[in-house]
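Dear H.,

Thanks for agreeing to be a second pair of eyes. The structure we're designing against is below in token form, covering all 185 positions.
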């Protein structure tokens, strides 16, 4: 039996730049945004010049140079690797592809890094993501889609994780129900 494939999104799941982005927006535009103010994935509730700044921020070539995974993320990945093949599946912006890839290589083998837009096209058993459309499309393929809680995805129903520690139990239940792994070994 091949190992189940568990896909983890990067931005908004393993790494969250929201506070950093909002700090810069607040300083530049004299605002006082907090993470809860991002109520949709496209930032449409922000003024156009603020939204443009945010999209330019994501295009920075050094976007991930100082990023790191916290201890919880490292531990979660280690535990999940006991159950299956853990891969990161992330949508890059053109300007930061090299920075994102170099960051991911610190934690993942190059064979376990997928940079793509349509995550539902990847043959996998589980996807943990914060983008509603990614989860909905993945669930339509029959896999377990766990929405990682963010202010922009509260309308999504079904399996939800509020912190990385939350993803283990639903993944374990799903893998056992689908006979993808035997935990009695």
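And this is the sequence the design step returned. I haven't edited it by hand at all.
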């Amino acid at each position: 039996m091949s190992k189940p494939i568990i896909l983890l999104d990067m931005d908004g799941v393993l790494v969250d730049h929201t506070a950093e982005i909002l700090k810069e927006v607040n300083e530049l535009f004299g605002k006082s945004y907090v993470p809860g103010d991002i109520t949709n994935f496209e930032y449409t509730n922000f003024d156009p010049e603020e939204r443009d700044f945010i999209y330019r921020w994501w295009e920075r070539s050094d976007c991930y140079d100082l990023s790191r995974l916290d201890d919880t993320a490292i531990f979660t990945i280690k535990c999940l690797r006991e159950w299956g093949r853990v891969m990161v599946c992330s949508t890059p912006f053109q300007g930061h592809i090299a920075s994102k890839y170099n960051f991911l290589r610190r934690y993942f083998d190059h064979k376990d890094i997928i940079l793509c837009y349509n995550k539902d096209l990847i043959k996998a058993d589980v996807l943990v993501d914060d983008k509603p459309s990614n989860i909905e499309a993945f669930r339509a393929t029959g896999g377990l889609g766990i929405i990682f809680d963010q202010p922009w995805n509260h309308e999504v129903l079904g399996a939800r994780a509020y912190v990385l520690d939350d993803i283990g139990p639903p993944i374990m239940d799903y893998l056992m129900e689908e006979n993808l792994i035997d935990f009695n070994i």
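Two observations from my side: The chain has a mean pLDDT of 94. Strands lie at 5-8, 85-90, 113-115, 126-129, 144-148, 160-161.

Warmly,
E.
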